[in-house]
Specification:
The protein is an alpha+beta fold. The chain is built from 28 helices and 21 strands. The strands form four sheets. Strands 13, 14, 15, 16, 17, 18 and 19 form a seven-stranded mixed sheet that branches. Helix 5 packs across helix 13 (about 395-430), helix 13 runs antiparallel to helix 15 and helix 18 (about 555-570) runs antiparallel to helix 22. The two termini are about 55 Å apart.
Length: about 900
């Protein structure tokens, strides 16, 4: 019998079987009546000879097949009836499992979106990223000049193709069309980059694939749109190929549209546009002025990254001989190769995600243990029902299947609720996740996550219900039916099992609470780290700068200086300043590498990689930067004055490692700002050394930093486009509430330039909070996990003790009848709870000691095995256990001995 026949003709077959059996019995009875037997006796003899009708039906249906499916449906219907009969018990189990499944689902959704998602490229496992020089903080690779890339293409045999993208800054770019302008990511790429990635446009031929990778000047105005840019700006116009669009007021011809889901260079859903790289004269040199590019290679099948790196180092040893400057030659000799994964996830981010996934899994395990305890209690309460079904012929396997199906129905219900809770949790923490993770986190679980959740549902059902089902099904039938009381049939082994599960809950909960306590101590310590600048009453606006409007004008004179004067005259504004990126901000980052020869003859020159920022002279009034030596910028540091810079102590020590006094760097010439204009070929002189302050993250040591006076960065400066034209933060100190000042600031920005009106506003206090990054995210999530674990732990202990009291009601009555005081009975219950709590806390302290290694990377100012934290969480858990035990103990003390003995 096919499943199709079983689904749609099973009732007809059952009716036919019933009719056939009735006809057989009728014929047999008629035959006996013909031989002279009475009607009733003939019918009885026919039935006796036929045998058990129900058994015949079962045997016949088994011959048809799919009986197991019919029994599964019967068990599912019975489980639903049980849930309807006991809604409180069902809500407790479903809620318990939903908490654990929600935490695991939410964390796995984040991990899947950030760490496990596959790149939308063909054979992405063969793609590698190649760089020169030492990798800097965050895993960024330093860029490679074209002559090195050309040599690699000619001499390396481990690669199918080598492509590259423009490593310089193009500023903010705006795609214009259909009466609107949308900010886009505009990336210059080699013509073979799409083919190297193994992706073709969904519309159009794409960029012309030149062997050398560069485009001709005639092809420079051709672009490929991302699917998002195509739909957002042009409404998905399928005739877009060949049309002219404008980017930054410049005309470009569309030659292709990439497929949906494609991204490069990072995982972003924002509109993207790609154009070809055009080779310039500086690309033919091996100097510090040569443009650098990010390089992606595709390995040949069967080639490992290790063998490719070995060949690369051999070839690069000859390539580096083309560098005249010894420092750049040393830099070029250090080549690196790693698996390409889009935007790189930092090590601390990876550790945070994995640690939180482990914590959510622990919470899920606690939920399963709690659900197991509830189902054990439920099984004990249903012993007579289960024994009765066994007495009527149900096998142990059949009973265990029915009870396990009940657990599966509960787990499925918990999964549905858990998915809803997970989606809600992701939406609540979306801003925090966006701050610390490089990739966008999906708002809904992917197919991979849903498949994993299906497995998690089955596993939850197996862990929480299979064991109780097995124990309930193996109970002896006759003793249970013979005993008439409610309080019989529960063995010591079952009591020990339930007690052991509660101990496990307490131990795992303490481990979570300890990790949460350590992170809260870390956040407390970070809040008390001296920042080195003021943060109170400061509003920060991240300006959205239309780069193309400032390309041929001096933005300082035409936009920034008038804007500052306008803002400083607003009511309640004490000071206002501009900076490419405020301290602890993450909107912009630019690094320079400077060389300094050692003063000692036996030491070589050293290279310093430093953060490079531009700031207005009034910025010190806003933040109150402390000066270690020298002075900060003033109103005289203009474009007509000699160029000056301010550095921090970390830069001074790195630039002059032989000098102990950082102040001796004052007066040194370290940087050339411009080759043209009033500052032509002049070296910028150090005029001051800033005191130590927190730059990128609270608690992170200061890195070398150079600041240049904003008025001295003119349009003829080499740094103009990459500083003023890309990023600028407006910082305003005011005594008025932000809600009153921000509308006035937005109006001032709109008056300066209409595009600036859409700038994002925040406060410096919020920036400081966001800078805590993975520590704050981990602390907040662990607070939820630990709180949920504590709640489940208390519920589990309360449930066990309440059940024990109900089972020992007769014993309590006997004790009272023999003269026991109510305090003695309460003490009995409290002592039993105390044994469980002490055992759980002792085991939990061991787990907490081991789990300290998981959170070690997020701690600041506290040891992973901090005794005060462990002692505090142990006391909290003991108090919670005492509270959970008090109510059952009070209930035991109020037992009426007469009623208790009468019920037996």
């Amino acid at each position: 019998m096919s499943v199709w026949q079983w689904l749609f003709r099973s009732e007809d077959r059952k009716s036919d079987l019933d009719a056939e059996i009735e006809a057989h019995l009728a014929l047999a009875a008629a035959d006996r009546r013909e031989r002279g037997m009475g009607r009733d006796r003939a019918h009885a003899e026919a039935q006796r000879e036929f045998g058990n009708v129900a058994l015949v039906k079962d045997v016949t249906r088994e011959a048809w097949g799919w009986v197991w499916l019919e029994r599964l449906l019967q068990d599912a219907k019975y489980a639903l009836r049980q849930i309807r009969r006991s809604p409180g018990f069902a809500a407790a189990v479903i809620g318990t499992l939903a908490l654990g499944i929600a935490a695991t689902a939410a964390m796995f959704t984040v991990v899947d979106g950030v760490l496990l998602s596959h790149l939308p490229y063909k054979h992405a496992d063969r793609l590698v990223q190649i760089g020169e020089g030492q990798t800097v903080e965050g895993g960024d690779y330093l860029y490679v000049p074209y002559l090195d890339i050309e040599a690699w293409r000619e001499q390396l045999h481990s690669f199918e193709a080598i492509a590259f993208d423009g490593g310089g800054f193009d500023g903010r770019n705006f795609l214009q069309g259909n009466g609107t302008a949308v900010q886009i990511g505009f990336t210059r790429i080699s013509a073979n980059l799409f083919s190297t990635l193994g992706v073709s446009p969904q519309l159009g031929p794409g960029l012309p694939n030149k062997p050398e990778g560069f485009a001709k000047t005639s092809d420079a105005q051709e672009v490929v749109l991302s699917d998002s840019a195509w739909r957002t700006v042009f409404g998905g116009d399928r005739n877009i190929v060949g049309k002219t669009v404008h980017i930054n007021d410049e005309p470009y011809t569309v030659v292709g549209v990439m497929p949906r889901g494609f991204f490069f260079p990072d995982r972003s859903d924002d509109p993207q546009v790609w154009g070809p790289i055009v080779m310039g004269d500086k690309d033919q040199g091996h100097t510090g002025d040569s443009p650098g590019y990010g390089v992606i290679g595709r390995l040949k099948p069967g080639v490992t990254r290790a063998s490719a790196l070995a060949e690369l180092k051999t070839v690069q040893a000859h390539v580096a001989m083309g560098y005249v400057d010894p420092e750049w030659r040393k830099h070029a000799l250090q080549v690196n190769l790693r698996k390409y994964s889009g935007e790189q996830v930092r090590t601390d981010q990876r550790h945070a995600l994995l640690a939180l996934t482990a914590a959510s899994s622990l919470l899920w395990l606690i939920a399963c243990v709690n659900a197991t305890n509830l189902l054990l209690a439920r099984g004990s309460a249903r012993q007579r029902e289960i024994a009765m079904r066994g007495a009527l012929g149900a096998s142990r396997r059949r009973l265990m299947q029915q009870l396990t199906i009940e657990g599966l129905v509960l787990s499925i219900s918990a999964t549905v609720l858990g998915i809803g809770l997970a989606v809600g949790a992701i939406s609540i923490f979306h801003r925090a996740l966006k701050q610390v993770l490089p990739s966008p986190v999906p708002s809904w679980p992917s197919v991979t996550v849903l498949v994993a959740l299906s497995g998690l549902t089955i596993l939850s059902a197996v862990l929480s219900s299979a064991w109780p089902s097995w124990m309930a099904a193996r109970l002896p039938i006759e003793p249970v039916l013979r005993q008439g009381g409610q309080q019989s049939g529960v063995s010591r082994a079952q009591h020990r099992l339930r007690g052991g599960l509660v101990i496990a809950e307490i131990a795992m909960s303490l481990a979570l609470l300890a990790s949460c306590g350590l992170l809260l101590r870390t956040i407390y310590a970070l809040h008390h780290v001296p920042l080195g600048f003021r943060t109170d009453h400061i509003i920060v606006a991240n300006l959205e700068i239309p780069t193309y409007r400032f390309a041929k004008t001096n933005a300082t004179a035409t936009i920034y200086q008038p804007l500052l004067e306008r803002v400083q005259h607003l009511p309640g504004v004490d000071a206002a300043g501009l900076m490419t990126d405020v301290p602890l901000g993450h909107t912009f980052s630019m690094r320079l590498m400077l060389s300094q020869k050692s003063t000692k003859a036996d030491q070589k020159s050293n290279a310093v990689v430093a953060e490079f920022k531009a700031a207005s002279p009034s910025l010190q009034r806003v933040f109150g930067f402390p000066m270690f030596k020298g002075r900060y910028f003033n109103a005289q540091d203009t474009s007509s004055a000699d160029p000056v810079v301010v550095v921090n102590r970390a830069f001074a020590h790195a630039f002059m490692p032989d000098e102990q006094d950082a102040g001796k760097i004052i007066g040194k010439d370290i940087l050339q700002l411009s080759k043209d204009g009033p500052q032509k070929n002049k070296q910028a002189r150090v005029i001051g050394v800033l005191g130590d302050f927190q730059q990128s993250a609270v608690g992170t040591p200061s890195r070398p930093e150079i600041q240049v006076s904003l008025p001295q960065i003119t349009s003829d400066s080499g740094f103009y486009t990459v500083l003023e034209g890309i990023a600028m933060d407006l910082a305003v100190r005011t005594q008025r509430p932000p809600s009153e000042v921000i509308p006035e600031l937005r109006a001032a920005l709109k008056q300066a330039s209409p595009e600036l009106a859409g700038s994002n506003f925040t406060t410096m206090d919020q920036i400081v909070e966001d800078s805590y990054g993975s520590q704050m995210l981990a602390a907040r999530l662990l607070e939820i996990f630990a709180g949920s674990a504590l709640l489940l732990c208390v519920a589990g202990l309360y449930g066990l003790l309440a059940y024990v009291v109900s089972q020992r009601t007769r014993e309590m009555g006997v004790r009272f009848a023999l003269g026991a005081a109510r305090g003695d009975v309460m003490g009995l219950v409290m002592r039993q709870a105390g044994v469980l709590v002490v055992a759980g806390v002792s085991l939990g302290l061991v787990l907490a000691f081991l789990s300290g290694k998981l959170v070690r990377n997020f701690l600041y100012g506290v040891s992973p095995h901090d005794g005060w934290t462990l002692a505090t969480v142990a006391i909290v858990l003991m108090l919670a256990g005492a509270l959970a035990a008090y109510l059952p103990a009070l209930r035991a003390a109020r037992v009426d001995p007469v009623e208790a003995l009468r019920t037996e």
